[in-house]
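Onboarding guide, step 5: your first structure request.
Type a short instruction followed by the sequence, for example:

Predict the 3D structure of this protein.
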Amino acid sequence: MKIEIWSDFACPFCYIGKTRFEQALEKFEHKKDVEVIYKAYQLNPYAPKTMEGSAYEAFAKGHNMTVSQAKDRFKMFEQNAKSVGLTYNYDIIQMTNTFDAHRLAKYANTKGLEEKLTSRLMKAYFTDGKNLSDINTLVELAKEVGLDENEARKILEENTYADEVNAQITEARQVGVQGVPFFVINRKYGVSGAQQTEYFYQALKQIWLEDNPVKTLGGQDDDASCGDEGCSF
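The system replies with structure tokens like these:
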């Protein structure tokens, strides 16, 4: 089973959705047969590399709301994050451009470390208040997950993997991604949003049954697969 996940490090529900999905995958009986591929997406490709003012002010301006409304929205994000054991610190979040972080993630993929770096980048953004546009910060995070810091710096300074990131963002539009997180399973089913852990688990089970129908007993040749409703999302 192949699962492609489009997400952005600056997306509050992407971190939550990733966590819920991983909780479901952890208890899935066939998890060793699941290939997870991370794909780049930018919620705000025009975000600056340095934020001016507070995150509340930046969010309010970008979403045509008051600062008070932005604070209420952030409280909702924080409560959702807490439900899966994550901590969001909006008082220190740096709402900046994530393109370079995505380029670094594509480099990490060549070393088998993209999932690990993705988790670290999300924590750096939402919990630690790190600026994911700052090269020195990105190099430090790369080193933390086991990547070569000199190679990471060279890649960031030379704009390497930019074409791959842009291609994945374009691909998102082609497969119908209109918001993230977005999970594409076997290029047949799409799951949008940070669904509950149980939803992800049931989806994995049902799609696995569709691809691996159970043999009927008694020497029959017919296969028993999930019904019409079982694999619809």
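Each response can be followed by summary notes, for example: DSSP finds nine helices and six strands in the chain.
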